[in-house]
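Annotators were shown the component list below and the corresponding predicted structure, then asked to write short factual statements about the assembly.
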Amino acid sequence: DAMVIQNPRYQVTQFGKPVTLSCSQTLNHNVMYWYQQKSSQAPKLLFHYYDKDFNNEADTPDNFQSRRPNTSFCFLDIRSPGLGDAAMYLCATREGGSDEQYFGPGTRLTVT
Amino acid sequence: AQSVTQLDSQVPVFEEAPVELRCNYSSSVSVYLFWYVQYPNQGLQLLLKYLSGSTLVESINGFEAEFNKSQTSFHLRKPSVHISDTAEYFCAVSEGNTGKLIFGQGTTLQVKP
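Structure shown to annotators:
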């Protein structure tokens, strides 16, 4: 089945230690999104790619970076995680011109 | 700027009772509206959406939502809930060409036996 895959599902990192979260898709969609969802809160968009064009939300901290080496893969890099970065990180995809986003299962990040 | 307000943070209800989860939005342009469901430690699943046309939209598992432009609302309803409907429900509006979703704060539906 076509899907959005996120690895790992659970990630523990230490304060200040760089961490990378991975998202892959078999849907061949040209738009990919990264959302941050803190406990009991709504998902909040960090950035998205339209093809190779990167679009950062104005309030996304510089600590968060992203890479999209090809259509299928997108990475979220947190350069120096703080305790406040503990959250569920959701990846989503969309085919440009359509209206529906397809979400992965998320990666829950714990910062110790 | 667009925004979404979900009026109830938690909705407890007994099994087989009807339920309504309320959602209001603000936007100066035409909108696409969505309801997503999130089960514990999982991603979001699309429940239903309004793009245009009929203001009443339905999902395959018995939920429906009605787009009301004059009241800027998109409330979600189900006439008879099941235990398995217990989850977090998010209302969202899609922003323009980016397809960016702006979510409400979520409503926890707790179905009791």
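Statements collected:
1. Residues 36 and 65 of chain B are 12 Å apart (CA to CA).
2. The first strand of chain B starts at residue 3 and ends at 6.
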